[in-house]
């Protein structure tokens, strides 16, 4: 830290009591200066030779008959008694030391006392300005310390432009090429760097962000704004700086209940949102979601939430599933805020639509743009599938309608498989066993059975939580896939993801007939698979016939089995009770 010593005489200021200071000399004091609750017994001549303000104050209190023991009061001097004492010692020529911690207070006090060059050459204001410009403002850390201290002396610090000069000094150093940074400028980040890059040529581009993060939010905002006006700092670095600053404050938000703290933290968060760089990819999606979570808990304005939702929607594919688990405000029906997730998906869709429109209007069309867009949608589809599985597990008040609404927003997004959709549906069925058969049927329509992996199919056909109609569909598609592996099976022609059991059985008979025409080698290769599926088929149809015995023929064609009651009745007419028992035992 830089410092400057002024004067050469020894310090002879002494205290009579806690609130009385005097100069220990043979000459009697002739003026009392009251600063706050402290009284200084001083001599007029040293003070009048350097301070124009004291000249005027003493002149107004002195009369022709009284030339001694005058008392003047200056309760509003910036810096209070300590700053005035330094100024008084300077007037006496006593040794005083200036540094980054006290220079602002003394500079403002000297301005208040009007200690200018016009009163005496080499006066205190001039000497402090030399110290500021030649030492303090050339030091990275001292500039930050001085800027921090200016808050206590507003508006005097602003009048003498110390804050502006500190801001300019900090900004100019922050935009310097990292290869030219002197390590004496950095303090907090140096010890965090690995030894191999802890040298002049290995200074990271964000070397300054830890130091400025120590500033209060109002000064921090001015620093970031000043740096952004300069050329040389990337938007990504500004985003990193904001994230580091938020990390120092945001963890304390959730543990504070005092209303004053809430107001302060809300203002801080809103300021950070206003400082976010407008450039895309300049701020990580995870950081934006943390800000959004905090904005919900702090009940920030709607404008801030909309801006954060828009920014997150632009890069939703970068989010993690855990990021989307946002607690709902008190008084909501659900524990987690699912509406926000819907908003984020809508913002993502809007962004993708704008990109597509821009590509349609552009003359320079890059073939890779469509691939990138498809990949982004695939990533978001997987993200939402994982989110639905997790929210189904931990949210007891998640309704089937809300589940379907969220899932349908990404239903047309490209997916390599529907395993994630199946996992989410199965988790919802498991954690919400009280839903109706009709609701199960509606939710099951979200899944395309043709796009399940063999592992998912093996699990699904033994899953008693799935509607029987879905299990039969999966078996049918597996049979088609085993017979014609190069042909993508099509849905049976009976509506949305559903089919009548008559149609399915006819298709299965057709497949069986086709199998009989294949070569002996193919039959041998698939014999083990056929046996395994035969066991599962027997189990499924056993469940079907058992259901008929228990509930009656009419009940089999309920919402979780088939929309075609006639198909089951036909099969039932051809079976005797003894036949059904034999099939059940098989």
TrEMBL record:
List all Basic and acidic residues biased stretches: 518-531
The highest taxon in the source lineage is: Eukaryota
Q: What is this protein called?
A: BTB/POZ domain-containing protein NPY3
Xref: InterPro entries: BTB/POZ_dom, NPH3/RPT2-like, NPH3_dom, SKP1/BTB/POZ_sf
Checking PANTHER family in the record gives: OS12G0117600 PROTEIN
Which keywords describe this protein according to UniProt?
Phosphoprotein, Ubl conjugation pathway
Q: Where is the BTB domain?
A: 29-100
**UniProt-listed GO biological process terms:** positive gravitropism
**Amino-acid biosynthesis: is it a keyword of this entry?**
no
The residue range of the signal peptide is none
Region (Disordered), start-end ranges? 485-533, 547-586
Origin organism is Cardamine amara subsp. amara
**Pathway info:** Protein modification; protein ubiquitination
The record's comment on protein family reads: Belongs to the NPH3 family.
């Amino acid at each position: 830290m830089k410092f400057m010593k002024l004067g050469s005489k020894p310090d002879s200021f002494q205290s009579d009591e806690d609130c009385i200071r005097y100069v220990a000399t043979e000459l009697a004091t002739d003026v009392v200066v009251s600063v706050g609750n402290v009284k200084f017994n001083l001599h007029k001549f040293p003070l009048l030779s350097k301070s124009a303000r004291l000249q005027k104050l003493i002149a107004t209190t002195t009369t022709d008959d009284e030339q001694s023991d005058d008392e003047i009061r200056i309760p509003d001097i910036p810096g209070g008694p300590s700053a005035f004492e330094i100024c008084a010692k300077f007037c006496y020529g006593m040794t005083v030391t200036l540094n980054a911690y006290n220079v602002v207070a003394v500079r403002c006090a000297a301005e208040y006392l009007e200690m200018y060059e016009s009163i005496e050459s080499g006066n205190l204001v001039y000497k402090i300005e030399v110290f500021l410009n030649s030492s303090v403002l050339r030091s990275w850390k001292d500039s930050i310390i001085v800027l921090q201290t200016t808050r206590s002396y507003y508006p005097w610090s602003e009048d003498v432009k110390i804050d502006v000069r500190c801001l300019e000094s900090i900004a100019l150093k922050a935009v310097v090429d990292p290869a030219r940074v002197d390590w004496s400028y950095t303090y907090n980040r140096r010890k965090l760097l690995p030894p191999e890059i802890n040298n002049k040529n290995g200074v990271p581009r964000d070397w300054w962000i830890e130091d400025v993060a120590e500033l209060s939010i109002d000064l921090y905002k001015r620093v970031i704004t000043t740096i952004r006006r300069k050329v040389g700092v990337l938007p990504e670095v500004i985003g990193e700086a904001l994230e580091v600053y938020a990390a120092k404050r945001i963890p304390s938000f959730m543990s504070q209940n005092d209303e004053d703290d809430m107001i302060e933290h809300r203002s801080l968060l809103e300021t950070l949102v206003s400082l976010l760089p407008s450039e895309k990819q300049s701020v990580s999606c995870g950081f934006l979601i943390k800000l959004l979570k905090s904005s919900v808990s702090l009940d920030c304005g709607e404008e801030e939430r909309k801006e954060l939702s828009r920014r997150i929607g632009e890069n939703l594919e970068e989010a993690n599933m855990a990021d989307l688990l946002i607690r709902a405000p008190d008084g909501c029906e659900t524990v987690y805020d699912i509406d926000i997730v819907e908003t984020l998906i809508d913002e993502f869709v809007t962004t993708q639509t704008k990109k597509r429109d821009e590509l349609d209007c552009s003359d320079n069309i890059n073939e890779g743009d469509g691939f990138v867009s498809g990949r982004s949608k695939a990533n978001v589809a997987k993200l939402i599938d994982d989110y639905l599985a997790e929210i189904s597990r931990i949210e007891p008040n998640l309704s089937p309608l809300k589940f379907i609404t969220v899932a349908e927003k990404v239903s047309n997004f490209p997916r390599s498989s529907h395993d994630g959709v199946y996992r989410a549906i199965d988790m919802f069925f498991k954690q919400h066993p009280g839903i109706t058969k009709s609701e199960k049927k509606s939710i099951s329509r979200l899944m395309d059975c043709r796009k399940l992996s063999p592992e998912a199919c093996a699990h699904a056909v033994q899953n008693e939580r799935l509607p029987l109609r879905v299990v039969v569909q999966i078996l049918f598609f597996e049979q088609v896939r085993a017979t014609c592996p190069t042909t993508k099976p099509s849905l049976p022609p009976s509506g949305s993801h559903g089919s009548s059991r008559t149609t399915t059985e006819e298709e299965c008979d057709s497949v069986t007939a086709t199998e009989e025409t294949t070569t002996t080698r193919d039959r041998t290769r698939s014999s083990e698979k056929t046996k395994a599926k035969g066991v599962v088929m027997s189990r499924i149809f056993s469940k079907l016939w058992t259901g008929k015995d228990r509930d009656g023929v009419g009940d089999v064609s309920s919402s979780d089995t088939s929309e075609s009651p006639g198909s089951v009745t036909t099969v039932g007419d051809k079976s005797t009770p003894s036949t059904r028992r034999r099939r059940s035992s098989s």
